[in-house]
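Record 1 of the preview.
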Amino acid sequence: MAHHPRISISHDPAIAAHAPHVVVRKDPLEDDSDWLELLADGLTFDLLGLCPGPGIAIPEIEYLFNCEVESEASGEALGLFPGPHIAHGANALPIVRALLGLGAALTRSLDGIRTVCWPPARSAIAPKFFARTVDAWLAGGPFPALGMLGMRFDERGALTTEGLDFFIGSEMAIEPGLCTDRTTATRLAVRVVHELVGRECLSASREFVTEAGDTLLLVPDPNAGLIRITRA
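->
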């Protein structure tokens, strides 16, 4: 990691704890030649699946962003996970930011990276697109919702997210009447998500003004695990 002075490598073994995107090492006494502990911004992360050991299992993929996913037989996966001392807060924003920043650095440093996967959203992302959008976010730009979240339109035409729960404890649903133009609805979702990630959980309805000047309502529905977006 010579090109990344804020990242260093440690060979000390570690056992990752349970968390939404944390794996549990099978045996602390197993061969440690297939993993590294990376230190980034004072936080430790485990990089698993290195040669000469086997790669880790490729996660389930549902949403594609600027990429294609080939069969599992065509490649193996590396996995980057929060270390054991921070695993309990794996979805805390400072840890997520460090994890994604480290992931972006690795995609630029390692040869042969075909796809970046984000299991909480079951998404697969083109490496250059992933690194570019993550770097922009870390520099103060918009949250990289296209990649960190899955988005789909249900049978009623409503847009719903997958993976937002990891960041804020709820998914989001945009009512069908706001989704007649799917491109516009997706842009709206990206804008709203940027406003929600990193803030306190929405406990009461609040207004949201679109780029076109329309006023919408963000309505928490804790029973459904959703934040609903409706017309005011």
